[in-house]
Specification:
9% strand, alpha/beta, binds thiamine diphosphate, 343 residues, two-stranded antiparallel ribbon
Length: 343
């Protein structure tokens, strides 16, 4: 027990005060953003919400450690819809998520076309996010192969939920990344928040933990407490260093809370699960790394900033109907398709 306490203390010292405070501020920023998006969905200022409250303690440390840029020399990200904290930690602006929530034309990810929290950022190798779950574990094989064939320390990173691991795409990713002929430098992340919509983890998984899939392939794998940002930071650091150097895959399972249920379809109300931010704040205060006043100021500033962004987005235009055919591969409807007065 005393040994454990010492190990935790050491971890805080390894990260240092400045980084810990930065992580806290980003976690708060991500939470305030998601809570605003939920509010928008409930007040008719958007149509549907899905996002990541409860996953900030894992996602912020991940975003901070990405090798960010465009092309094979930089990390590729194949993410899913609970990843806002990753993107904010990479430098994405909260206002752009609000734009996508309100489906305005200024949404830089999809010009107001896609669901909220479905980003696409070519200049940072953030591959367009898909609402069909788990397909990202198939697309990551492609960039993984390209990076395995390139002399670089860059890697491909994929994340998704526990439920999705029942899909074939997840298993294709394990098979392809572990081929002896060409192992792939992929950080395979599963954020296990305990549920797939309403299906509880324990009713679905025959394996003891999802990281046990690593044993089948003799691959490096670990399960961590994704509600702890310090443990997450160090585990991600270790996993990334392994993929970068060995050019092999690593399976990382992070157990987190899911604080507002699945999406607006299930109400998005706050649930009684451990809150990673409250837990972190208690630890920061106990260690004298932040005072209660400093913590309040971080929340106040984040709220003020999100209010300002939200007001700004309310003044922005919706896409014009005639732009519907922009950015699609097909050039309009075929002539045979009845467009006017047809049935
Ligand atoms: C291919 C496909 N099947 C089903 C769905 C419906 N669906 C959306 S989210 C979801 C649950 C995903 O659960 P999990 O993988 O645990 O991720 P979480 O949402 O908990 O992060 C399902 C079944 C879908 N979007 N795509």
């Amino acid at each position: 027990m005393a040994q454990d306490a010492l190990a935790v203390q050491d971890s805080y010292e390894v990260l240092g005060k400045e980084l810990l405070r930065r992580i806290h501020s980003l976690m708060v920023g991500a939470r305030v953003l998601e809570e605003r998006l939920i509010k928008m969905s409930k007040s008719g200022d958007g149509f549907f919400w899905i996002g990541g409250p409860g996953e900030e303690a894992f996602n912020v440390p991940l975003g901070l450690q990405v090798k960010k840029g465009s092309g094979l020399e930089f990390d590729y990200l194949h993410l899913h819809y609970r990843s806002s904290a990753i993107l904010l930690s990479m430098g994405a602006k909260p206002i752009d998520s609000i734009r996508q929530m309100r489906s305005v034309a200024t949404d830089p990810y999809s010009k107001g076309r896609n669901f909220v929290n479905h980003a696409a950022i070519p200049e940072w190798n953030v591959v367009p996010m898909s609402p069909t779950i788990e397909t990202q574990y198939s697309t990551v094989i492609g960039t993984g192969i390209a990076q395995a064939r390139t002399k670089t320390d860059a890697i491909s990173i994929v994340n998704g939920g526990d439920g999705g691991t029942a899909e074939g795409d997840f298993h294709s990713c394990l098979v392809w990344s572990n081929r002896p002929a060409l192992p792939l430098p992929i950080l395979i992340i599963v954020v296990n928040n305990g549920y797939a919509i309403s299906t509880a983890e324990e009713t679905q998984h025959g394996e003891r933990q999802i990281s046990d899939w690593g044993r089948v392939f003799n691959m490096s794998a670990k399960t961590i407490n994704g509600n702890d940002p310090v443990e997450s930071y160090l585990a991600i650091k270790e996993a990334m260093a392994y993929c970068r150097k060995e050019r092999k895959p690593y399976l990382l399972e992070a157990k987190t809370s899911r604080l507002n249920g699945h999406s607006s379809s299930s109400g998005a109300n706050r649930l009684q699960e451990p809150d990673c931010i409250s837990l972190f704040e208690a630890e920061l205060k106990k260690r004298g790394l932040m005072t209660p006043d400093e913590i309040s100021r971080v929340w106040d500033e984040a709220l003020k900033s999100i209010d300002y962004d939200h007001q700004q987005v309310k003044s922005e235009p919706f896409p014009k109907p005639e732009t519907i055919w922009e950015d699609v591969f097909a050039e309009g409807l075929p002539e045979s398709y009845p467009t006017k007065g047809g049935s």
